[in-house]
Amino acid sequence: MGDQGKTFLCISNFFKGNAFLTQLKKQGNRVFLITSEKLKDKPWAFEYIDEIFYMPGQDLDWDLELLMKGVGGLMKNHKIESIVALDDYDVEKATFLRESLRIPGMGQTTGRFFRDKLAMRIKAHDSDIKVPAFAPLFNDDDINQFADHIPAPWVLKPRSEASAHGIIKVHDKESLWENIHQLGDNRLYYLVEHFKPGDVYHADGLMLDGRNLFCSVSKYLSTPMEISQGGGIFRSANLKFGSTDEKAIKKANTAVMKAFGMKSGATHTEFIKSHEDGEIYFLETSSRVGGAHLAEMVEAATGINLWAEWAKIEDALAKGYKYQLPKVSKNYAGILLTLSKFQHPDLSSFDDPEVYFRVPLEYHAGLIVKSKNQDRVMQLLDDYAERIAREFSTVADAPELKKFH
């Protein structure tokens, strides 16, 4: 089991990761959490956290100097062995702290590949990994060159927004420029990309010392972009084990992790299979567990809890023992999730034995189903989507969900 407990500092700007914090504590470690003041009342796994520190400010505007001084104060009496970012927004904070305090783990340069969509695309392109055509918005000539050579439609994407939120789709050069002018000085933080129609897949993985230990491949049955921009129902399901698509996505995922220098931890990476040429293109990656309860869906399908296993990997690294992945099972699972017009929707009428999990989010209706039979999962997802849309769905002003993946 390795030696005595270590001290872990976890950072999360979003209410997530209880299974990670719990597992770390169960491994005999001291667990500190830094989160936003506005998440004070969330049901954190308090009994597994030694101390919680609250930062003022919203997601993006934490004062890094204040954070650094706070952590510095903590380090006077505690030897912090490891800093873990539980959400996309926290990657910069964690890399900044690691670099400043010389704590091992991902630094700022590698961190960029898991956070900045422009850095990701350039790195992938330079590493011969297929990506949709793109251009930064720094230089007017480059933008005109892009617009004159790459057929519309295009999408303007924020370089570091952790969801499909903030994406603008444009259909001609005039509206492209109109939108760029509206962005003003903020154009630096966006890129333009060729919109490729296709099926979007996600690979959810675990890495250790640069090796892929585990990878589950699923397909969005409706894309996060469609959802965040027009209501609707978010759905995803894992692919047939050993299928051509599964193998192709796994291979592409391995190439991305190698090129980007990912060493250890959880990863969530998205690919598109183009309708036009059938090729797999890299879209984006992150060094975290996928959002929107995809972790529970992966667990239903494979028996692997990404949060808990990630915690065990971090524990093994800190203590220097060999991590062992549990046996992976082969089931089929799918999720459906939608904004609900009720704060606490009653999903008790969805009572098939395949129902594995009911999503506990307010103003959302969501279910995960699992079965040995993939067709059964697909049939239930279709049937349930229709029922949920009829009884619960809303595109009204229910509290907005920014992180559908």
TrEMBL record:
Residue ranges of every copy of the ATP-grasp domain listed in the record: 121-315
Which Gene Ontology molecular-function terms are recorded? ATP binding; ligase activity; metal ion binding
Q: Which UniProt keywords apply?
A: ATP-binding, Ligase, Nucleotide-binding
Q: Where are the transmembrane segments?
A: none
Name used for this protein in its record? ATP-grasp domain-containing protein
Q: Which organism is it from?
A: Algoriphagus yeomjeoni
Instruction: Please spell out the taxonomic lineage of the organism that makes this protein.
Output: Bacteria, Pseudomonadati, Bacteroidota, Cytophagia, Cytophagales
